[in-house]
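User: Sequence in, structure out. Go.
Assistant: Echoing your sequence, followed by the structure tokens.
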Amino acid sequence: MPSIPLSIAVALYLLFVTNHTYWSKAWDYMSDQPLAVIVLGFGMAGLFSAACIAVSVKYLTKPIFIFLILASAAAAWFMDQFGIIVDTEMIRNAAETNTAEAGHLMTPGFALHMLLFGIVPAALVAIVRVEHRSFGRKVLHNLIAIAACLALAGAAAYQYSYMYASLIRIHRDWFETLNPVTPVASAVKFVIGKGSEANIVVKPLGTDAKVVGAAVPARKPRLVVIVAGETARAENWSLSGYGRETTPELKTQDITYFPKATSCGTSTAVSIPCLFSVYTRSDYTHRKGIETENLVDVLRHAGVTVNWWDNNTGSYKVAARIQEVSFPAMNDPAFCKDGECQDGMFLKEIDNWIGTITRDTVLVVHQIGSHGPSYFLRYPEEFRRFTPDCRSAEFADCTHEELVNAYDNTLLYSDHIISSIIDRLKAGQDRFDPSLIYASDHGESLGEYGVYLHGAPYMIAPSQQTHVPFLLWFGDAEKKQIDMACLAREAAGDVSHDNIFHTVLGMMHVETSVRDKSLDLVSSCRTGASS
């Protein structure tokens, strides 16, 4: 088969078979101008064909086309099934996940999809005999074909360019679903960025940090537990006004809840390093996050003992310079299966650990929480209260009600975990002065606007992915230094992950030049000497 017809065939396959989401959005946005959609199809066919002809080089044609077909088939599955966009941060999430998490996405439906839309067409490309002209003739024929394709694209763009440009500006999500352009470009950008990280030297932060006031043993040691939640959205928290009771235990605790909290990102790989960083969401970048010390380092400089307990995919280098314990690696059969553990394991470990506290200490508890798509694996049978619940990682196997039931069960279990940690902190107040802060790293989409899971680009992310639960709890000693009525008034305002760095330093009574008291949620309500 001559290389040019093969290139055009592959281009048309990629454009029209693996771009269901792109063309669905195009039709939605131009439903009143059907001719514009048809013209766009011809124009895009010209562009895709020109690109494929350009890379149809002898010895490279088949490998490139097979790669594009397989990559497009995989990206199409996740875009079509979950409404996600395969951008650089989504590539980062995929690269930094663990095998257990990735395994939940490798469903029978995905395997069948890859067989039909990836492996079979790739095999056809592999077995076809490609005919290449001599070098000079090939260059000439390819240039003529590319010019013709680009002329077709140009003619289409000329007629409706004003409409396409306007729609791209208004609907940023549309062009970002173009497959395989966005996934491949994002992967290249990720690889380039990853390579540039190899020689990064981490910059010190807050080396002047110190705990103010009396030192241990003149007072009891302070203990702050930071619970970094996973995939909990505020919309489904009853403390936020949700009609179903998903936080019955926290409801009985003397907590301060912040109903208008927003996240730094829409994925764990962004939000975890961002919420522990000194940077606000508007200033934060991935590179800044890894080249600058963070909250746990500043606490360490102040002489505070910091431990990181992880029941997720790791700390994303936040805990690179402190002790980090991976719960899945412990593989406790009472809580763990197939490389993943339920969060109840935290309670067992806290019971064994909490009696050892003799110094000012911060414990970070990184949950698996409500991580999807296998929500049903995140809670034990006794917390399976909302039924029928989805018992599959294939959302197509479940009704929307079953999906929401399973997700709400994860929140019910997280409510139990957080409340139980508070109970343990209360019980130890004769030996230490405890506090707790909880915030979810990001939210979750459950089918709203045709979107599932999380990881949408922040500028177009729905509120379900950015509006997160956030709360504070203080032990008796700390409450005496805080005007709780004042804090309740503060809680009614807008807060975000930007506040966590500075609020935790205040909770530990740590002073440093990098602490911004205006971002400390408690500072203005403190009645004691330290603020």
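User: And one key feature?
Assistant: The first strand starts at residue 210 and ends at 211.
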